[in-house]
Structure formats: C-alpha cells, structure tokens
Write a structure and sequence with these properties.
By secondary structure, the protein is an alpha/beta fold. Helices cover 23% and strands 29% of the residues. It contains 3 helices and 8 strands. The protein binds cobalt (II) ion. Cobalt (II) ion binds next to loops.
Length: 150
C-alpha cells in the first residue's frame, strides 16, 4: 500500500507539473476560408512565457490566403490592423518596430505551422487584448480576445 501511494504521489506531481506548462502553450488553426479555429484564447498570469502555435489547415498559398497571429491591446487593434496592410508580405504584414504589436508570427500558407513565444511581463490580466490576422482584409473576420487569467 505504501509503495502504491508513493507511485501515485509521484505520478500526480509529474502530471500537475506538466499541466501547468501546457497551460502556457496554446494552439490555434486557420483555414482556406479566412477563419481561425477559435475567437478566444486564454493563459494564466503565472506563465513566464507563452507560446502560441498557429497551424494553417488549408492548402492555399500564403500570397493568396496567408495567415498570421498578432497580439495587441484591444484599443490598438484597429490601428495596427489598418497600418499592417502597407507593411507588405515580405514583412509578414507587421509594421517594423511597432510598439503596439505585443507578439506576432510570420505569415504562413496552407499546410504550414509557425509559433511565437513571448513573455507576459508588462501584460496585465486587467487589460483587454485581441489577436488577429493582419493579412489584408482578414482582420474583420479573423480576430478574437486574448485573456490573461488570475
Ligand atoms: Co489571415
């Protein structure tokens, strides 16, 4: 009995550690009809770093139906979205050195996957954030809320 309890305790410890780390890794996908798989992502404020992985489940080329994942304060969403258009595909439709952009991935095409890792330092659970795709014309449909909980 003692032996079983010890094994159970170790297993529970390992599992809880893994679950905590997993909470800081979020996944989202995007398709050929200009849609993200979710309009809400959340991470606990205890995450030192967050990794967002974006998968393009479609087949379209990135020049035709490219997607990225960009994070900004909700108040900055419209400004970043409209300023991103002129940044061009070569710059992944993200204005260079724009402090309003809190995190961003590159633009990917069908069958591709990319990720971005960023710190939550300087971000607050009291602030509203949005994620969106800055490929021209996509942000109206491809957007969602990003929440920092706790
Ligand atoms: Co897109």
């Amino acid at each position: 009995m003692k032996h079983n309890f010890l094994i159970y305790s170790i297993a529970a410890f390992l599992f809880s550690g893994a679950a905590l780390a997993d909470d800081c890794q979020v996944e989202i996908s995007a398709n050929d009809v200009m849609q993200y798989s979710t309009d809400e992502l959340s991470v606990p404020s205890s995450c030192k770093e967050v990794t967002v992985t974006l998968t393009h489940t479609g087949t379209a080329a990135k020049s035709a139906m490219g997607h990225n994942w960009v994070l900004a304060k909700s108040d900055d969403f419209q400004g970043v979205a409209s300023d991103s258009m002129s940044a061009g595909l070569d710059n992944n439709y993200v204005p260079a050195g724009d402090a309003r952009v809190l995190a961003s991935t590159k633009v990917i095409g069908g069958g591709e996957k990319t990720s971005v890792t960023f710190s939550l330092e300087g971000l607050s659970s009291k602030q509203e954030y949005m994620f969106f795709c800055t490929f021209p014309g996509h942000w109206a449909m491809m957007k969602g809320t990003f929440k920092i909980t706790g």
